[in-house]
Known about the structure:
By secondary structure, the chain is mainly α. It has helices at about 20-35, 75-80, 80-85, 90-100, 105-120, 165, 185-200, 210-225, 240-255, 260-270, 275-280, 285-295, 295-310, 325-350, 365-385, 415-420, 430-435, 445-465, and strands at about 45, 50, 55-65, 65-70, 140-145, 155-160.
Amino acid sequence: MVSQPQSSERTLTIRRPPSASSRSTTTRRHRNNRSHHGGSSYAPQNEFPNFAHTGDVEILISADSQERRYMLHRLILAQSSGFFEAGTSEEWSRAQAQTQSPTGPFEQERGLTRIGEDEETASTIGSPGSSITPSKRSLRWRYELDWGTQTDEMPVLVQKPPSTSLFGGDSTPRPPPIRNKPSAPSHGFFRSISAMQSAIHIPQTSTQSNPDNEIIRDYDNLFRIFYNFNPSLDPINIAEAYVQCKSLLALADMYDALEVVGPRIDHHLLQFQSRLWKQIAKYPPSYLKLGYLARSKVIFAEALVHVVGQWPAGSSQLRSLPDSVLELIEDKVDELQDLKAKTEGRLFRLTLNTARGDRVTPTNAYLEWTAISLFRQWLAENTTPPPPPIPKIPTTDIRRSAPLPQPPLLNTGKIYRLLGAGGSSYLGHDELKRFMKIQPDNYTRDSLRKFEKRMDEIKNLAKEAVKPLMRNYLELDLGRDGGGLGYLTCTRIEEADYPWD
């Protein structure tokens, strides 16, 4: 045996820095997970719209050869939609199991018991020391978009038996592998394509005009709102945004989710500000329906003021609204008519006084009395509907003839706005001059000047009388001339008037 000489000095062990060893180990671990050329790596995601680890409701939306698959949570869907709350309840699940399962009641009860156990074990997924993996979770509910048998039928989600092979075990569908990008074409290719497009007009297909694509967009926006994401709505074109919001609200109404979707629609449309007020003035019945579905107090009140001022114009477009909304409109119209009647009474009772304080009469102040008579005549002609036309048929054929057409309803809003403006907006200088020349003996420059002065006094009294009708409860700025509106906007909406509170 050969013995090795031992040194008296201690041998020092040289160790690598821990950072270097950990860095090398980490680098190797990352390299092992990298995909090689021609292969692909797939890690199931757990985020919207595919919660592969924690989702328990599969929703499949198919339209126009397109397919959207969602893996969502029953808790979120049930909290946001009454449709999903009822469809995923234990009572509904038990009824579905009895109608779809070919086994006996004993096996069905065992299946429901197993579902309850899966709920308990779902909370342990991802916890330290847990042996349950997300891929072993069983799918509980599955919905597919059913288009029905008729072409005009609205598609609706229908509950189907859950397919455990899709989201359980190793048979989870994987996305197609990521392929290498093709080489960039040469500049000559783009030059030839642009020349061809300039010579031949190639129509561009728009996905916005396809109703099937709109259905996919609406369902995607619906689920995005459920998970507190912003919906994909047009932020520039208010007309397109209205169409998108209307279809989204109709979908939310069908699935009993207006309380969740309505505030999002309200927030998006209110961002347009002045453009929104102008659009409501153009289409008040349409925005009244939208404001009611979205539970938007601002939009609903703005549209209601226009509807009441124009009533009964546009009443045929509001028949689909609930009776509570129609009763509210009728009540506000009656209040406006009462206010107008009181104002008309004050206008017809306007008068002038002499220097002694007496009311003017033809005996003590003929010129002033003539001015009051002219004002009352002008007011009566413009606030009274014209008489029906006289039929030009023999009296013997009246019974056989069709009923006479009713005269159009007179909206006096424009007349009251003229009274509220005062000045030369009505009964101006030329009209007063022609009136004075009817009696040439009484016409002089001094008498015309005095007549105009007394008429201005009457106009000032009338302007004060119509002030309650000149109030504007719109967000739209009407300006001094009333914004060109021919109706009144003095309808006030109180907090207790909203039909959904």
